[in-house]
Amino acid sequence: MKRLNLLCSLFLMFVFAGLSAQETDQKPQEGHTNQNKFRQMYMEFATPNQYRTASGAPGPAYYQNEADYKMDVVLDDKNSVLTGEETITYHNNSPQDLEYLWIQLDQNIRKKDSPSLKKDGDGMAPATSAARFANQWLEEPFDGGFNIKEVSKDGSPLKYTINQTMMRVDMPAALEAGESYTFNIKWSYNINNHVTNRARSGYEFFPEDGNKAYQIAQFFPRMAVYNDVEGWQNMQFWGSGEFALPFGNYEVNITVPADHIMEATGKLQNRKEVYSKEMMDRYEKAQKSFDKPVIIVTQEEAEKAEKGFSNKTKTWKYKADNVRDFAFSTSRKYILDMMATDVMGKTVMAVSLYPKEGNPLWEKWSTRVVASTLQSYSNHTFQYPYHKAISVHAKNQGMEYPMICWNYGRPDEDGNYSDRTKFGMMSVIIHEVGHNFFPMIVNSDERQWGWMDEGINTFVQYMAEQEFGEKYPDAVAPMENYPSRRGQPHKIVPYMKGNQSYIAPIMANPEEVYQLGNNAYGKPATALNILRETVMGRELFDYAFHTYSHRWMFKHPTPEDFFRTMEDASSIDLDWFWRGWFYTTDNVDMGIKSVEKFYITDTPTEKGKEMLKRYGASDEDMNALYVVREEDPEFSEDLKQKSLMENSPSLQEYVMDNFTAEARQNLKAPKYFYQVVFEKPGGLVMPLIVEVTYADGTKEKMTYPVQIWRKNDDAVSKVIPSQKEITKIVVDPDMETADVNLDNNSWPKTDNKNEFEQFKESQD
Known about the structure:
Elements lengths: L1 H16 L48 E11 L4 E11 L6 E7 L25 H9 L8 E7 L2 E2 L1 E5 L2 E10 L4 E11 L3 H4 L4 E5 L4 E6 L5 E2 L2 E2 L3 E2 L15 E10 L3 E4 L2 E2 L2 H4 L2 H10 L7 E4 L1 H7 L7 E11 L4 E4 L3 E9 L2 E9 L6 H20 L7 E6 L4 E4 L2 E4 L11 H16 L15 H22 L1 H4 L16 H4 L19 H21 L1 H15 L6 H10 L6 H9 L7 E11 L4 H9 L4 H4 L3 E4 L7 H5 L7 H10 L2 H5 L6 E8 L8 E7 L4 E6 L10 E8 L3 E6 L14 E2 L4 H12 L1
Parallel strand pairs: 1-14, 21-22, 22-24
Antiparallel strand pairs: 1-2, 2-8, 3-7, 3-11, 4-5, 4-8, 6-7, 9-10, 10-19, 12-13, 14-18, 15-19, 16-18, 17-20, 20-21, 23-24, 25-26, 25-27, 27-30, 28-29, 28-31, 31-32
C-alpha cells in the first residue's frame, strides 16, 4: 500500500509539473462564473422545441407558410417605368390565426424621402471626386419607390398601411390556421440606373447606342416570412441586410419591346412565340451539347438589334414552382448562349446573357463557369433541383436570385482583359450561381443573419473555385491553383488582427458591422474551411455538411440549426468553435514560450532527491529516474551520448521484468526529451499543430487536439521525446489556423514574417 501511495504521489507530481505555466500559489480569490472556452452554449442557443430539435433537424411540428403569385408586368423601355398587377395567394400553414399580412416593399428604399438616405454619418472630406461631390451634394435623390395603386380582394379595396419598406394589409377577418387568402395589388415604379447608385437591380445605360440593359429584381410587392422564430420577419430593409422570403409557385407574364432578348426565373412557357426559328434550332442543339456552349443569339444579331428600337411588344411567359423569389433581365443588346450540363445524372441548362461589351471574355468562360459551379455545389450539398442556371453580365453587379444572377467583369473597349478581370468575373459567377443553394434553396433569413448565406456560400465557392481550376487548367495557367480571394486562413489575418473598434462578431446583423465583406463573407468562409481541413477533417465535415444541406433544403434554418446539425452528424463537440469564431472577435495567436532539453539518468540528482523527499518518497523506494538539463551540474557529454536504456540499469531491469521479448523489440528508445511550453496570447482556442525538424534534416508533424487548452487558456507544457536531436520547432507551419502573430511561432526564433510572405506567395 505504501508503494502504491508513493506511485500516486509521483504521478500527481508529474501532472503538476506539466502545468508549469499555470499559477499554483494558493491565494484567497473571489469566485467567478464559468468562463471556460469549452463550456456548452446552453445560454446562447434557443431552447429546442417541437419546431426545431436539439439535433438541428426540423421538428415534428415544423411548418412554413407559402405564397403563390400570378403576375402581369409591363416594361416601358422609353421611360424606364415598370407597371405590374399581381394576385397573391397566401397559405397559412402555421398553427396560429393571422390578424394581418406583411408585404415587403423593397423599392421604397429608393424613395426621395427614404430614411435609409440618412442612416449613415458623413462629413466634409479634405478632397473628393467631382462625381462623388455632385452625387452627395448637388443631385436630387432619385424619385423611386413603389406607387401602390390598389390593394383589393375580389374587387373590393383592402385597408393597408405603409411603413417605409413594409406594408401591412388588414384583412376583414383573421386568416385561420390551415387556410389561404387571395388578394390583388397593382403598382408601378421608376426603374433606377443601377450603375450610378450601385443598387441590386435596375438598368445600365449605354450612351454609344442609346440602349439599356435591365436587371430587374425586388420589382413586386413580396410576402414577408412568418415562422416559429420571428413571427413576422418585418425588419425594415435598410440596404445591407438582404431578404427573407417564403417559397411558392409563380406564373409571370412580362411584356417588353419585341426586339428584346430575355431570361428569367422559371420555365419559359411560350418559347416558340418569342424565339425565331434560328433561335429554336440552336436551342435544340444546345440541349444536346455537353462539351461547349451553343450561341442562341449571336453577337452579330445583337449588334444589329441594338440599332433599332421596336415599337411592338412581346410577352414572355414563365412558370416557376417552389421558388422564393423571381427576377428577370431583358435588352435588345443581349447575346445568348447555352450548354447542357450533367449534374449528378440530371441535365441542367447552363445559360449566359451578355452584351457585346462582355466579349470575348464572356463567350469563352461564363457558361463553362456556370456548369462547373452547378456540379461542384451539387457534389458538396444536394443535386441542383432546377432546370437551368443563368449568368447575366452587368456592370458593377453581383447579385443572386432563383435560377438567375447578375455578374460583373468587363474587358476594355478593345476586348483586352487582365487576370484580375478574368478571375474576378469567374469568382463572382461561381459565388452568385452558388447562391441558388444558399439561400435560394437552403432558405436562411438574410435580413437577420447575413453570414448564413454569404459566409456559407463563400466557403463552398472556395471549394468550387479550386475544382474549377482542376477542370480547366488552361484557365489558371501558369498559376498552380485558382487564385481564390477568400477562404484560405492567412487571407483573413489582417482583418482579425485589426482595430477592434471596427470589428463585430459574425453573429451580428448586417446593418451593424463596419466591414461587411470580411464579417459576413471572409471570416465565416475561413472558419468553415478551417473546420473542414484542420478541426474535423474532410470526411466528418462533409458528411455533416451534407446532412445540414439535405435537412434544410426548401426550409428556413437558423444559425443554431446549422451549429447543432454539424455536431449531431459528426459526434464532435464544437461549442468552443462556434463561440470563439462566431460569437466573439477574438483571434488566434499561438506560439512557443520556452524550450528545454532534458536527458534521463538513474543517478540521483540534487533536484530529484529534493522533489522525492517533498512527496514523501526516496530513490530507493521508487527506483526513480532523474531528469538532467544541459544547464544542470550533473550534465556531462557522456550522459548526452548514452541512450536512455544504456544509461539506466534500473529501467533495463524494469523492462526485462515487465515486457515480453516481442514487446521489447517494439519499445521506443528516445535519447532526448524536449519540454516545450506553448503559449496562447490570442483568445481563440485552436488545435495545436507543431512541426519539428531534426538534425538530419527530416521533419515530423504532430497535432495536439484543441482540448489541450481546456484547463489552462494561457499556456501548456508538452514533452516531446525523440531519438534524434531537434533543431527547430514551428507552430502552425502551413498557416492553417489564421494565426495573427508569427513572431512567437518558431524555436529558435526566426524571421517568421519573411517565412509568412514566402508562404503567401506560394499560395497566391
